[in-house]
Amino acid sequence: MVSNLSSDLMELLEELPHPLALVLAGEPRTPGRRGGMAVAWLSRVSWDPPLIAVSLTSSRHTYRLIKEFKCFTINLVSKPLRDVTFNVFGVLSGWEVDKFKVAGVEPGSGRSVTAPTIPNSPLIIECKLVGEFPVGDHVVVIGQVVDAYRGSNESPLIYYKGDSATVSVN
Ligand SMILES: Cc1cc2nc3c(=O)[nH]c(=O)nc-3n(C[C@H](O)[C@H](O)[C@H](O)COP(=O)(O)O)c2cc1C
């Protein structure tokens, strides 16, 4: 349990770099039937078929939409969306507000799945839900990648030490 972990250990684990993404689900054009959340705990987990695992808290509105629609999109976050990722999608609840309206973000529609997208995200990955596993205090959702494309040439941010950081390619 978290209460048994030292704060040093928790701080050290924050030094594990993660992608910074918005996971979106639901009907793109229908406030109340769409949602999304900031996510850092996600990773590729299989080449063939191409699978991605996302670790979510099961009480989240976004998780309920993923279960209902059986698909979702992963949208990498670049600088222009950094603040709404942390201050809107990462803290507000889709049970209470339409985060797209609060953030002033007009979502696009998935090409291959029914889910919102961030049209100018550096990388948009569309997934079908193919499995889920309870893990500790989270649920790992497994998405099979059915489409992926670039929405812009902006650099993606990563999640590092509780904040965003820029990626530089050597
Ligand atoms: C940078 C950042 C990364 C986050 N990563 C995750 C994550 O990987 N898994 C998770 O369950 N919650 C994560 N959260 C918290 C959710 O985004 C947050 O609880 C959100 O309000 C859930 O919204 P919803 O209930 O509308 O789905 C993160 C928050 C921030 C700010």
Q: Care to describe what's here?
A:
This protein is an alpha+beta fold. The chain has a single domain (17-161), classed as Pnp Oxidase, Chain A (Roll), CATH 2.30.110.10. A hairpin with a 4-residue loop joins strand 4 and strand 5. The protein has four helices and twelve strands. The protein has a seven-stranded antiparallel sheet. The chain has helices at residues 7-13, 61-69, 82-89, 99-103, and strands at 18-19, 21-26, 34-39, 42-46, 51-56, 71-76, 108-109, 116-117, 124-135, 138-149, 157-160, 163-166. Flavin mononucleotide is lined by residues 35, 37-41, 55-57, 60-62, 86, 90-94, 159.
Features:
single chain; 170 residues; Pnp Oxidase, Chain A; seven-stranded antiparallel beta sheet; three-stranded antiparallel beta sheet; 4 helices; binds flavin mononucleotide
Please outline what is shown here.
This protein is an alpha+beta fold.
Total DSSP E strands = 12
**Strands side by side in the biggest sheet:** 3-2-6-9-10-5-4
Count up the helices: 4
From the alpha carbons, calculate the radius of gyration and give it in angstroms: 15 Å
Q: Ligands bound here? A: flavin mononucleotide
Strand content: 35-45%
> CATH homologous superfamily, by name?
Electron Transport, Fmn-binding Protein, Chain A
Question: pLDDT average, as an integer?
Answer: 96
Low-pLDDT residue intervals, each spanning 5 or more residues: none
Q: Give a short account of the largest sheet.
A: 7 strands, antiparallel
